[in-house]
Design goal:
Layout (H helix, E strand, L loop, with lengths): L1 H15 L18 E5 L2 E6 L4 E5 L9 E10 L4 E9 L2 H9 L1 E3 L2 E3 L10 E15 L2 E15 L14 H9 L1 E12 L4 E11 L7 E12 L4 E14 L2 E7 L1 E2 L4 E2 L2 E9 L3
Antiparallel strand pairs: 1-2, 1-17, 2-3, 3-4, 4-5, 5-8, 6-7, 8-9, 9-10, 10-11, 11-12, 12-13, 13-14, 13-17, 15-16
Length: 270
């Protein structure tokens, strides 16, 4: 039961509220036209044109409609800049989490039953600046997130878990801010690494901030397949106090395990 809830938490929540937490780097670079990428824990990304990319989580789209569009503004040798805009509709997903898992004559859920989950729309918009160096590629990003609620949303429905709480918090606080730095470097022709540091801030809200750090090591097996392994570290202020957690964390074994992901790449035939 605990494992199933944890998998729902990792696979559904952390990958969908805004930009995926496992995405290797938030850079201003776009995919070439007609090129696509998808991963086990990453969205489907597609190069619609030289200046526009879009991404969705195709399978989970049916329980949580979502779409993100990246627009290139400048692509130069010194630096590149882009903006990324997205939306998501979490109501149906939250109702599924409220239903929970039946164990004997009891039900375990991430949201207590009995509360009404209203219709909600989340919007995000961020500016990304990327600069190449001899030592690697550096990206800076900052943005704002808005949560629209069509009805009454009880604060007792909040999911007080790392990564999730500060993403859902925009629906209780109406808005949130985020900023971060990303760095990536090629080690060899087939291997590379990336790491980031992000801040999520909910002004005036209980448990107002969260720091997130990710490190991923990548191996390019072929032109079409890439493997990644790494971790996600979270330190945040929650209603019950400050907490830190190394993810992914498996409750049944009470231990952290490395994050493993596979990414596939291809081109759409003309």
């Amino acid at each position: 039961m605990r494992l199933k809830l944890h998998l729902i938490y990792i696979l559904l929540l952390t990958g969908l509220f805004g930009r995926s937490v496992w995405t290797p780097q938030a850079s201003a670079y776009l995919l070439p036209e007609k090129k696509w990428e998808i991963g086990l824990f990453q969205p489907f990304r597609y190069g619609f044109s030289e200046k526009i990319n879009y991404s969705i989580h195709p399978i989970l789209f049916f329980i949580m409609p979502n779409l993100s569009v990246k627009i290139l503004h400048q692509n130069g040798k010194m630096f590149s800049s882009a903006t990324q805009h997205g939306f998501y509709y979490p109501t149906r997903l939250l109702k599924i989490l409220q239903t929970g898992v039946q164990v004997g004559d009891k039900t375990a859920s991430l949201i207590a039953p009995g509360f009404k989950i209203p219709h909600m729309l989340g919007f995000s918009s961020e500016y990304i600046l990327t600069k190449p160096y001899k030592t690697g590629t550096l990206s800076l990003h900052s943005g704002v997130n808005f949560g629209l609620v069509f009805g009454d949303l009880d604060t007792r429905t909040s999911i007080d878990l790392p990564l999730v709480y500060h993403r859902l918090g925009v629906f209780y606080n109406k808005y949130g801010l985020d900023a971060g730095i990303d760095f990536s470097k090629n080690i060899t022709d087939a291997t590379s690494y990336s790491f980031d540091l992000d801040l999520k801030f909910l002004p005036g809200f209980s448990g107002s901030y969260s720091f997130e750090h990710k490190f991923l090591l990548h191996w390019q097996k072929s032109k079409r397949t890439r493997f990644s392994i790494g971790y996600k570290y979270v330190y945040g202020n929650f209603p019950y106090g400050k907490q830190s957690r190394l993810l992914p964390y498996l409750p049944l074994v009470e231990s952290w395990v490395p994050m493993f992901d596979v990414q596939w790449v291809g081109f759409r035939k003309k």
